[in-house]
Design a protein that fits this description.
The complex is a heterodimer of chains A (138) and B (162). Chain A contains five helices and no strands. With 138 residues, chain A is mostly helical. In chain A, helix 2 packs across helix 4, helix 3 crosses helix 5 and helix 4 packs antiparallel against helix 5. The longest helix of chain A has 31 residues. Chain B is mostly helical and 162 residues long. Chain B has a domain of 108 residues: Fumarate reductase/succinate dehydrogenase, transmembrane subunit (3 helical TM bundles of succinate and fumarate reductases), CATH 1.20.1300. Helix content of chain B is 80%, strand content 0%. Chain B is built from six helices and no strands. Classes of the chains: A mainly alpha (138), B mainly alpha (162). At the A-B interface, helix 2, helix 3, helix 4 and helix 5 of A face helix 3, helix 5 and helix 6 of B.
Chain lengths: 138, 162
C-alpha cells in the first residue's frame, strides 16, 4: 500500500508541486520568497563585501587596538553587522538548497536543516554581540 | 518537380532521424525499467559522464566556494569575538591566523570570496536576462576566472607589500 502522507517520503520536497506530496509540508509557495531573498542579499553583499574585504586588508597590517577602535566606530560597526547578517542569510538560503539537492532522506535533511539554521542564528548573534560590545564600550 | 524533391528531402530527414533517434525500448517494460535504474543520477554527472565545460565547472565551483565561505563565517564570528574580548583570546586567535594553516585557509577563503563575488555578479546578470548565449556564457566564465586571479593576487600583494 502506498502512503502518500508518510513523513519518510524521500521525494517529499523534491516533488513539491505534486499536491499529495506537499499536503503535509505547508503551502510550498515560498520558493519565490527564498529566491528573492537570495538575490536581494547578493546585491547587498556586493558593496558590503567589498567594503569588508578592503577593511580586512587594511586591518591585516595593524594591531588589535586599531581593529577594536575601527569596529567600535559607528559606520564600520553598522556596516560589519549588516555584512555578517546579510552574508549569513545568503548562506542559509544557499546551504538549504544544497541540502535539498544532496540529502534525500527526509529525517536527515530535517536534522541538517535545523543544524544549519541554529548555526546561522548563533553565528549572527555572536558576531552582532561582539560588534555591539565594541561599539557600546566606546 | 516539387513533389519529387520534397519526397527526396523527406526521405533524407527520416534517414537522419533514424540515425539520431535511439531505438525505442518502451515496448518491453522490463528493459525500460532497467534503463531507468541504470541511468546516471544528478548531481554526480560532472566528472564521469560529462566532458569538461567551463560553464558546468564554474557552476559547481560556485557551490563549493559558497559552502567554503559559509564555513568561513565561523572564523569571522570567532575573530570578531576575539577582538571584542581582547587579551589571551585575541592573542591565540591572531597566532592561529598568522600560522601556516591559518594563512593557507585565509588564502583559500580570499579566492573563494573573490570568485563567489564575481560569479555572483554573473548570476545576477543571468537573472536579469543577460548573457545566455553559449559563447557569452563561456566568455563571462573565463572573465570571472581572470578577475578572481587578479583580485586575489592584488589583495595578497597589498598584504605583503604594505
Amino acid at each position: 500500500m502506498q502512503k502518500p502522507r508518510s513523513l519518510s517520503n524521500p521525494a517529499a520536497l523534491r516533488d513539491a508541486t505534486v499536491l499529495r506530496h506537499v499536503s503535509q509540508l505547508g503551502s510550498a509557495r515560498d520558493g519565490l520568497r527564498e529566491w528573492r531573498l537570495q538575490r536581494l542579499t547578493a546585491i547587498a553583499l556586493i558593496p558590503l563585501g567589498l567594503y569588508f574585504a578592503a577593511s580586512v586588508l587594511w586591518l591585516a597590517t595593524s594591531d588589535r587596538m586599531t581593529a577594536a577602535a575601527w569596529l567600535g566606530s559607528p559606520v564600520p560597526a553598522l556596516l560589519v553587522m549588516l555584512f555578517v547578517v546579510a552574508a549569513l542569510v545568503h548562506a542559509l538560503v544557499g546551504l538549504r538548497s544544497v541540502l535539498l539537492d544532496y540529502v534525500h532522506t527526509r529525517s536527515r535533511r530535517l536534522a541538517a536543516d535545523l543544524f544549519v539554521r541554529a548555526a546561522v542564528v548563533i553565528l549572527a548573534g555572536a558576531s552582532v554581540l561582539a560588534v555591539l560590545k565594541l561599539f557600546l564600550g566606546h | 518537380m516539387p513533389t519529387a524533391t520534397s519526397a527526396a528531402s523527406k526521405a533524407k530527414t527520416q534517414a537522419k532521424l533514424a540515425v539520431v533517434t535511439p531505438p525505442r525500448a518502451a515496448s518491453d517494460p522490463k528493459t525500460s525499467d532497467q534503463r531507468t535504474v541504470q541511468r546516471p543520477l544528478s548531481p554526480f554527472m560532472f566528472p564521469t559522464w560529462y566532458r569538461f565545460q567551463i560553464t558546468s565547472a564554474l557552476s559547481i565551483l560556485h557551490r563549493i566556494t559558497g559552502i567554503g565561505l559559509a564555513l568561513g563565517s565561523i572564523v569571522l564570528a570567532w575573530w570578531l569575538i576575539a577582538v571584542a574580548a581582547g587579551g589571551e583570546l585575541f592573542a591565540a586567535t591572531h597566532a592561529f591566523i598568522v600560522s601556516p594553516i591559518g594563512l593557507l585557509l585565509l588564502f583559500c577563503w580570499s579566492i573563494a570570496f573573490f570568485y563567489h563575488l564575481c560569479n555572483g555578479v554573473r548570476h545576477l546578470a543571468w537573472d536579469a536576462g543577460h548573457g545566455f548565449e553559449l559563447r557569452t556564457a563561456a566568455r563571462s566564465g573565463y572573465a570571472v576566472v581572470a578577475a578572481t586571479v587578479l583580485l586575489t593576487v592584488l589583495a595578497w600583494l597589498y598584504v605583503f607589500l604594505a
